[in-house]
Batch of 4 targets.
Target 1
Amino acid sequence: MAIHSKLDVDELNILLIDEDSARVAEIASALDKSRYKIQHLITSGVSLLKEVDAIQPDIIVIDVESPNRDILESLHTISSYNPKPIVMFSSQEDTEMINLSVESGVSAYVVGDTDPSRVKPILDAAVARFKQYQQLKNELDDTKNQLESREIIDRAKRLLMQKKSMNEDEAFHSMRKAAMDNGQKMEDVAKTVISFLNNSHSKSLL
Amino acid sequence: MISLEKSDINLGFIPLTDSAPLIIAKELGFFEQWGLKVSLRKQNSWATLRDKLHAGIIDAAQMLAPMPIASSLGLGTPVTEVITPMVLSLNGNAITFSEQLYLEILAQNKLSSITFPMAAYLLQSVVKNRLELGKDKLKFANVFPYSCHNYQLRDWLKSAGLSDNDVDLVIVPPVNMVGFLESGEIDGFCVGGPWNAKAVRSGIGITALTSYDIWQDSPEKVLGLLGAFYQKHPNTVLAICAALKQACAWLEDVPNRFEAARIMSHAEYLDANLDVIAPSLLGSCLTHRDMAPRSVPTYNQFSAFNKEAVNQPELVRGEWLIKQMQEAGQLINCEIPPRFISRVFRPDIYQQMQMLLANTNQNKLIRKAQ
């Protein structure tokens, strides 16, 4: 997909949210002449979400202690939101531990310091892990969808067998024929069958 | 006395008026009486407080009531079993508008003043007028997606047939609320103390109603901790709850609450003036610079002599919160496992703690502390 190839080679836009201007300068200089381009520096603001939407950053970088984390948190609740890797920096030594908790799932990674020489490898790792996670998630979603559609088809088949006294083969073939005739997916035909046979007394389907 | 599996405890909190039970339990020595050495860890955001709890950097925390449910369902975070053995406070939030929006409400409704608590329908004409003129929608802030503030604001708007299609709902950290209201970035907010009182004292806002006017006596903050932590440290959890329960009982007396406000104003806690912390604790809702405060006796409620249920994490309360989350559209594609809420809300632990309190003749100690 377009996004993935972009993560591999092209320039990556970073949205850096940090109130510490010294650290901003450090990170900026550490990323000079790399594929990471710091697009915008925002300290705070209600417009943060709008800016995220407008800039479409490839990575978001934020101080783990920033109050603005809660603004970013609302990204998860926007259904149309396209997930982005979030890298969180922290100057407190114990936050390395947070890493353990978040790396397994959501797109957030905490790192213990902002030693300029470490910034680039950290971002590389975050991008790579995020990509991996997204792929895994997509695969899981696909598998889940396949399982679900098989279940729906099975349910429709059973209904046809019960209510239309077809045998299994007849039920399957009648649905396949309907799918081919109407240019529909089997799953969609099955859904129609289910809603029809569950809700209606009519006797004339298929 | 019970034997503790762990006595050094890190407790996370966000500096708000309703963090009183944690601060009082620490300052008045209730934790100490149970052999606990508690360090209160001030946090800047709910998301980071949650992540630190999940990672075990803090052992327990004051949380927004819906947060343990969100963690256990894996909303915005990997699925993590967080339980709540105790409700720490009821009510405590309020909705405040900018002075400018207040004037707009008066003008659009041809009024010379509004009555408190303000009814949401007064916003209808403002919303309509802005739409007709092609002006920006009203922008209201709350503190976290999984917060009662969010659901209360939605519920109140709904009472006038308004929804997030008609107004923009955004998340703003409490510390930035008053500044954003002043700069016009937002037109109003739903937040806990001391931020409503702060907006009124600064002369930039009007507190139209409190959360008590929307939902009577709903759980606001709860104690949250990992299910795994409880399994390893059951006695420690009972001791933490017992000390917090004592603090809540102490806070039942109104005169004590003024003392609590003084303690909380210190830099390591709320770092705010007494005149913005004390009012809500004393049952006074500041309304507007030029208007009298309004009496809301249970603005902040931590305990009640005749209502044992205040601190009890009853299952119905959890189920009710899940309903609010559903209505806010947060549970689409999210399956609630059977008997889910009884794994998160744990009245069984609360009841054990009460038996412990009854058996451990702590009453004398409470009186001494008073």
Target 2
Amino acid sequence: MSLKHDIEFTLNGVKRRVSVDVTMNALAMLREVIGLTGTKYGCGEGECGACTIQVDGVSLNSCLMFAVDCDGRNVTTIEGLANDSKADALRESFVEHGAVQCGFCTPGMIMQADHMLHKHAHPDEACVKRGLEGNLCRCTGYKKIVDAVVACGAAEVTP
Amino acid sequence: MNVAEKKARVIEPDSLIGKRIPKMDAPEKASGRTRYIHDINLSGQLYGKILRSARIHALIKSIDVSAARALPGVHVVITAADIPDQRPIGVAKDHFPLKVGRVRSQRDEIAAVAAESEEIAEAALKLIKVEYEDLPVISNPEDAIKPGAALIHPEPHGADGSHLHLKQGMSIAHKGKPDNIAMRFDYVHGDVVQGEAESDVVVEDTFKLHYVTHCCMGVSGMIAEFDASGNVLMYSNTQVPFLHKREFAEYLNIDPARIRIIQPPIGGGFGSKLDIYPFEVICLYLARAAKRPVKMLFTREEEFLASPTRQPVLLTLRSGCKKDGTLTFRQVHTLHDNGAYTSWGATTPFVMMQTFSSLYRVPHCDYHTAAVYTNNPYAGSFRGYGNLQATFAIEQHMDMLAEKIGMDPLEFRLKNAQDAGEVTGQGMSFKSCGFKDCITTAAKRSDYARKARENAANRDKPGNIKRGIGMASMLHVGGGAKIYPSDGCGTILKMDDFANVTLITGASEIGQGSETVLSQLVCEELGLPISAVTVVNNDTAITPWDVGVHASRTTFIAGNSAIGAAKKAKSKILAVAAKKYGTAEDELDLRGGFVIQAASGEVVVELSKLLRNLHFQDKAELVMTTFYYEPPSVHQDKGFKGDVSAAYAWGSQVVEVEVDTDTGIVRMTKVTGAHDVGRVLNRLGIEGQIEGGVVMGQGYALTEDLLIQNGVMKNPNFRDYKLVTAPEIPEMDIAFIESMDGEGPQGAKGVGEAPSICIAAATANAIANATGVRMFELPFTPEKVYRALHGQTPKLYWKPWKAE
């Protein structure tokens, strides 16, 4: 059986200590060790973006990150956005704009969009499309997802 | 109490129909709280994994599972030898879940393991030793029909080589087949010889359609559990729970009543979950043997390898018309790559022939298909169900015929387009038909005529970017499809003491938004806000029968069923109110949570109060109703004729492209669509369906290509199988033609499949408009386009062939 390693990190604002297999990726740790299933497995090789999380404020594919590399870092998942008012607006924008169909890509999309909105508060359509290029969706044709993110950024401009 | 004396509070009329109503399940999904099958774990659960074939076509000489069984943490290892009562599965009952004696494709299931963890199960698979004896691989359907071709399902022979005497009624899995023809369809109306004689112009071309697959974002999976009495609980992503319940029972040799299917939210369907696949039956075998719940999830690679595909088609179409633009005949021969086994892909000719026979008025039509066995992946059902392939050929020929007779392609289409009131040669009766409106609306909104003219004129001007515009139209079932004994759906509706509704429907939600639309329809009848409804739609122990999510039928069929149940509830409520308040039922209505005077909108009583009064009286009663809706469609006869759907959906799409003649890259810049949807029920939802379908069609036309070489899938991953990404999507302008179907719920017709159908055909026409070069083979990858533009694509020709 594989070697275990103890790590300590901040997950969604709470300090965690977990023991993980050294070969395990962060996605498997979140889903199977910690039990947070909002982060999705879509491909396991960084092509679909369904497993997008934020680590020290940067979005990345959790399937491509070793769990042990979370040690000492600040990790945010879709569940961690529950107490974030800025993210409330983004989620509501997804709902209101019809950006959710089967919903399987949605957590990853929102994690990526949230990251994008932190970098570019008021992105235009081209910027959003570029920013979501690494997140695949098979249901919506992306248009309503792009609309949702653009509208969320624009809403912050208007008082 | 006299109603008129009550101080008048007036409720203004309001309607939910046509509004932008967000999906009811969207907040949960957007928060990451929704539990898909991947997120559900049962206590005591084991993990199942399947060993697939290392060869494409081979005899299995031996399987040694002893080392796998000995691995700590392994509970069960099974092969066909452990399940002597295996029954054949699939549309043609031509394979066993665990393969017996022979593998016929890369995905073939040889053994399965249930273990304490996925890692242990995977480790166990590596310990299984299989000896094979290779057989010749047939990877091309044209080779499969050659005389003397090796057989994919040969008839069994005795030990001495003699033909075994086979019992009548045995399945193909047992008795084999004397040829490689899995299924054939022959359809005719009129007389094509006469049609050709009447033609001034005839064109004939061969079209080649490729392999693509669904790529649901959530991989396939299921959880199976047997209780102490042998009853089965399945968590499944099936799109057809009630038919599958019966089928699973057959495979397990138990009473269907002992099977319960719960459908957790699903990570994409698109037709992929319409058949029972080996992994599902194998998961049941493992759970039965282990006496523990077993969960099985695919990896993405496995999802590519072992999911159904859209069926590749080789198609030769011969079409004719008169100088005045009247279509005269259509003769079609197609060859479908069935793959190694038969799933719904083989039956897509049902839909293809509708397009050939009835999209336009064609007096003479002749259509022949053979779906043939090869050692390739087997084809299933996929949004559009053959219609993308048929439309690809037909709509190119519409442009080509128009050009030959020097007629404007729009005028040519309009001259031959169907109208309401027509009955086609195939017996389809068009009650509502906005086809001509679709053509003219899409053309006008996209400025088709001007752009087409200018693009053609600019073709030979300098510069490597050529603009093109192309149109295609489609016909698809929009009121269910009567292919089973019933095409119906049941509804149970109950109201509580606070005027909330629980809507229990047989219709499955697969992300398309059915729960929201059904709630809207119920609220429209009962005058309630959408927040008053809870939908239960995912448990065969609770929900009434439904034939399944397919054929764009849910809004139409389940919608009418929900309305039926709501109307019964309303009628009961109004009868009670009329009696209580001394007025006539037809003078009352329900609105805004109140019983009102229909004429004035004046409040009579709060609905919740009335319901409580009804409940807490001496003769206590609750408002609970049921309804079963069966559409007024008919089964086709043996010649495939008959009005198979209660309504038909129409659409026209105009695609604009930029072709880079230096690189062959085709950029899709804009799609303008006009869809006859009967009536828009939920504008937000229907836009989402159309946009998603358009982009799926874009992938089919430009980027997606499942590469199979000699039976081996070369690109089972998102790196090499290219889905469209956000920056590549076209601008989309979607118009809705509301033809108000008389049978449709609030006038609506089905639309789920429609938007994907025309895109590839319209793109081909757009490329021709841009460059003057016709593309007959999908997808339009840069290499293919570049070769075609530089005269390096030999003319495709497949000689029409008819199975004897």
Target 3
Amino acid sequence: MSLKSPLGRVLGLGSSGTGTEHWVGQRLSAIALVPLTLWFLLSLLAFPALDFYAVTAWVAAPLHAVLLVLLVIALVYHSSLGTQVVVEDYVHAPGPRTLMLIILRLVHIALAVAGILAVFLIATRAPL
Amino acid sequence: MSPPVSRPRSPPLSPHLQVYRWQISNTLSILHRLTGVALAFGGLALVGWLLALASGQAAYAAANWVLTSFPGQAFLIGWTFCFFYHFCNGLRHLFWDAGFGFDKAVARKSGLAVVAAASVLTVIFWVVALTGVVE
């Protein structure tokens, strides 16, 4: 038999007290992605052909490079938060769940680094 | 104080998903998650494409060869639909978050509108992409 008071037994069992940041981050990145994704798709459509030099020159324009990096950050962040919730909701076994959450987080960090660095490398290589 | 002996070890659970009638609202909600997961892989492809472009002409040509192959095109068309669906339904969610559109009738209409808009936008996107109307 526990010597804890009834109050002591239930304290801390409810809401984890965190999660608001996650919720807000998901919405903020969603709002950021509205113009960024539309801009990206319309830009792709405007290319007559996606040839190497044309696309390289396009990425290298400073405004485009900045917007692309913002797109990568917002997209990867949104994807990280979203897939995390999917795993939390459907993977119940503690081991696989933790493992998948760790893998997801690391993959998303790697994606963000790769995407940002790729834009930087394209932009610095292009002869202006 | 110990609980009465007759008490079941685990309390009965409230009814779960299977007792509810399948309807448009939950179908669209599930579709939002599914398209989101698909788009996570689309993000992977986007970063892969940028890396190929950064790696040079040969890698970029290889990436475009994959993307313009039959499976590549199928994936791109699928991702485009997923994107437009997730985009439109995401806007619907943002309106809900702001407190609008909760009425049953409105939510149903906006849901159907999202499916229609996503389908139309996907078709328009690919017609423009393949015929080069812009330019």
Target 4
Amino acid sequence: MFRKSLNLGVATLGLAMMLGGPAHAEETFKLGFLGGLTGYLAPYDQPSLDGLTFGVDEINKAGGLQGKYKIELVSRDMRSETAESAVIAQELAGAGVNFLVVPCDVDPAVAAGQISAAAGIPTMSSCASTPTLPGIVGEYMFSNYTADNLQAAALGDYAMKQGYKNAFVMLSKDTPYTQKLPEYFVEVFKKKGGSIAGIIEYKMGQQDFAAEVTKIKGLSPAPDVIMTSAYEPDFPAFIKALRAAGITTPVLGSDGIDSPTTLALGDVAEGVVFTNAGFATEGSALAKFFADYKAAKGKEPETLYVATGYDIVKVLDAAVGASQGKLDGKSLRDAVDGLENVAVATGTMTYKGMNRVPLRTVALNKVTGGARALVELVTPAAADVPAAQ
Amino acid sequence: MDIVLQQLLNAVALGGTYALLALGLAIVFSVMGLINFAHGELMTATGYGIFFGIAAGFPFILSLGMGVGLAVVLALSMERVAFRPIRRASPTIMLLTSFAVSTILHTLMQNLISARPKPIPIPDMLAGAVTIGAHQIGTIQVLSIVIAAVSLIGLTLFFRATLLGIGMRAAAEDFDVARLMGLNANRVIAVAFAISGVLAGIAGILWLFQRGSVDPLMGFVPVLKAFIAVVLGGMGSLVGAVAGGFILGVVEVLLRAFLPDALISYRDAISLSIVIAILYFYPDGIIPRRENIR
């Protein structure tokens, strides 16, 4: 008896799925997320997913993308392993996702992108900032985050405006971010007439910067400014050693140091200027996002990656509008590629004519009394942005 | 000449931290034959102990004590829960277990605390520099040298003057014979883990003074350095571990300071080549554990 009713139940369920299936699929936008929720990418991919989830919940409450297409978010942990990234991309492609968000780092993003792009699924890295990424993978791959060359252009321009003539640069060849961003800066700074006092290399995680600082101290003439894209734990160790040695030269950094640690460093970090993806001025979209997030979760986001993760949902909403509801890979891809001035939490984003690396607003922040103070919000002129290489 | 002396001071400061870490690894290895790769997580635990201490409003010094205390508790717990059941197992099993403990701990920290770094505000008085004669040296580096020296002297006294310390040295030389002499194995091993916790805690504090934040993965690089130092000094030799730590620190800093720019990308390769060259001439390490010497 039990068995019979079970069979009947299964049959009913099956019938219901058959009847309800196609209509249901039309209303659902399947969004895949694969990221390093554990391992070295967790500090970036966890908040990206957090923001993405927040955006998905918000838009689903309002009826879905363009008020019609509810998002079904499927997320997977690739444990910060490149090989795992490809395996999960295969799984999610098989599950029929309409759009795939891939890790914050170039290598696993490429591994995943090569699978999903081949399957014709538009793919976007949550926060990889290497501008060559979409070009490496191909037509279906997009970036989301403020690219390295964009940040370098903003920093180079700022340095010139401050009247700095002679810059010293510290880079590490361990990652594209720590190497290329300073190299793009050198390109911009030289093009605008500045000179480079020297370039020094460090090793990520080396902790002790006394040797490098002693070298900088020995420079004659002393540089006007020091630029680096080092981030935690290297940047705090570096700036402490630098200031302890009595070197007061201004320091420029990038979004990697946009963290509570930098603000908690006290006097040593005072006056450090760095770029990031946005600044919450009063009445701005970002301020509203922070307030909404706080209202929902009881605390402000730990990092801007939450906001840039949320931005992806805004881009999707605009793309589905542009594709007039067509959710197939080709239509979505073309739609994203043609987006202009999409209002997102961190400002605006433009993909049109940008080779799938968005033009975003760059915020220049200055560490002032243990807080960020806005220097300016800039959108670098396309001619000032060094070519991705 | 000035710059040479300055860089030598830098080298000693870094070497001192490495020495403390290596000694922590070596103490456990000497009594148990285990290279505990979860040693780095003890440093991380110190960081979180300090972070939560400060967040709860405790004074800075007390928070430092809480950090070291947490490292000791964690070291004792990992011995009791993970390593005691496999004490008689092969070295490979012990090694893999320590990797597992390390992975479990940092995954727990990522998911239960935060994957993002947590700031540890360091008092401004630690940010400055001390002038010694014509030389300037960072306060943190002076502290590193002093704290490393005090810890090493304290530990030497412990090993030479206390019964437990002498027992541990005996256990380090030949654990089975020491047990036959009436040494309590559980106690010796637990004390070894406790000491390794204290040393990881102190090294962790010095590390944190430099970096200003704690994150779940912060123990990874230091434990690798400590492992190199232990191998360099001679597996199981306590004095060797200290020597290995200092040598590694000095080699790293001097290479960073004096290698020509064109070669600086290769400095890790060069420093490891130097380590290999030393091991070629001293295959058992610089100061090997005394075995079968009558």
